[in-house]
Amino acid sequence: MDEIIVDTETYFRPSKLPALNTRFDWNFFETYIFDNASEIKLPSWLFSTPEETILNYFSILREAANPVEGKGAGCGTLGNGRAPYPIAYNFLTKAYQEQLTYEQFLRKFENILHISLLKYHNVPLYENPDNILRYFVELETIEGTERNQGSFVYYYGFVDLLKENGEYRISNLEFHGENYLCAPYHGWAYDAEMSVPIQYGDWCDMIEEMYPFRQEGYIKNISFRGKDGMDYIIVFYQLANGTDIEIAQYRKGKTGEWELIKLNPEDCIREKNKTSLASTGEL
Q: What does the pLDDT look like over 266-281, one tens digit per residue?
């Protein structure tokens, strides 16, 4: 029996995407198990690059479990229990810890019993005086239910990092739950190839010609020739359920370089409605 290697990932994952946060075993946590969050001092190698910080942070949280009364997953002790949370809290910048107490941080994980990091990728910021580094992430979690059954729940969001004393620490966390019914019933808004012609074409009347779209892994680039003679690329990241999330917009400038821009197609709808009301004398 000692020679049998059990692939526990089989039991944790309905998704075919590999879990990326698999770095630590129980030996890592033993060093800090009796320390309060304020007493923990973590080695600098955990924060050497933004990618290392993200992978190490979610690897620490992978088998953390914060069950709540009345919801369960059909078994007893789960993973590393609450032991990882004080360690993970020390991945936050000092300023973020002042905004978010450890108790508030812990509540963010209520009823989350397991975390798999599916994707992470840097994304641009339009205005960034503080030199923040932002990363898109997607998570697959196991949560408890009133029926005492584990349920898979997916989240996507953004992790902001700042360099603090030579280490990349987390300065903000933002997550959104993924919906598995909106896209099948309201498809165009969640499909990059459909939403770009509608929003930037029908709504904003910007498109002269659509170019063939390109996809590499979960990154989609939808490009078109604008009526102003310039080329545009709208970048999307695709979630595990196939939903496309718009991440950034670029326009090829006069020098031939791609420049980050910020367009809001809904402004085009508002402007059309305003013009329509004005022409009928209702405005």
A: 999 988 787 665 565 5
Q: Partners of 65 in the beta sheet?
A: none
Q: Which residues does residue 43 pair with via DSSP β-bridges, in sequence order? A: none
pLDDT digits (tens, 9 = 90+) for 95-109: 999 999 999 999 999
Span between the terminal Cα atoms of the chain, in Å: 79
Cα 258 to its chain centre, rounded Å, is: 25
What distance in Å separates the CA atoms of residue 181 and residue 70, rounded to the nearest whole number?
26
What amino acid is encoded at 103 in this protein? E
Q: Using CB atoms within 10 A of its CB, is residue 121 exposed (0-12), middle (13-18) or buried (19+)?
A: middle
Mean pLDDT of the chain: 90
Residue closest to 133 by CA, chosen among 156, 162, 92, 94: 162
Model pTM?
0.89
Torsion from C-alpha of 144, 146, 148, 151, nearest 10 degrees: -40
